[in-house]
Amino acid sequence: MEDEDGEMLVNWSHLNHTHLLNDAKQEGTFKSGRWGTYTNPDLCFVTSDKSNQPLQTKRTIQNLFPKSQHRPVIVDIGINLPKINKPEISRWNLRKANWDKYTKYEGENINRINPTTINYTTFIKLIKTVATRAIPRGHRKNYLPCWTKECERLLNEYKQNNSEASANRSINLLDEERRKRWESYVEELDFTHSIMKSWDLLRKLEAAHPVRKED
Which of 108, 118, 170, 188 has its CA 20 to 30 A from that of 14? Predict the structure, then answer.
C-alpha cells in the first residue's frame, strides 16, 4: 500500500485482527469495459482464531455476471475436504473373488450344456450363477482420497476445540499423502507398455484443468 488510503486499510486490518484473502494466481474481480483488463478492487478480510491465525477459507472467483463488470466472489469458511460421492451401483469385486470355487462350480455344470447356439442363453445364466456364488458384489461408499487415521484424529480434534492449527495439520497431511500417491503413480507409468493407463491419466488432467477462453 503506497498511499494514505492504503496505510489506513492496513492499520484497520491490524487493529481488528483480520487477514486479507489474496491469491496472486487468481484472476481479477473487475473487468474494465474500456481497457478490457482485470483488477482486484474487491477485497475480502477474515478474522483470526485464538492462535492469531486466519480462519480456514477458500475464495472462488466466478465468471462475469450479466450487465456488470464485477465478477461474483464466493468465500467458503471452514475445512473444505474433497469428498468423492460414488453412485450406489453394485459392481463385481474381482480382487476378492474365490476363483477356485468359480472354476469348480463351472466345471461341474458346463458339460451339461450342449455347445449350440440355441443354448446360448442357458450358458449366460450359468456364468452369472457361478459369478454370483464366487464373486462378491457391492458399491464403494463415499470417501476421501488419501484420507488416513491421523487425518481423522486431527479433524476430530478440530471439531472439539476449533483449533485452526489442527485443521491446518490435517490438510497438510492430506496434501502430503496425495503427493506421495502421485509420485508413486507417475513412477509406475510406462508409455511403452501401459499406453492406455497413461492416456487415461492425461485425459483426467485435462478434465481437471480445462482451458478457458477469456471473456
Answer: 170
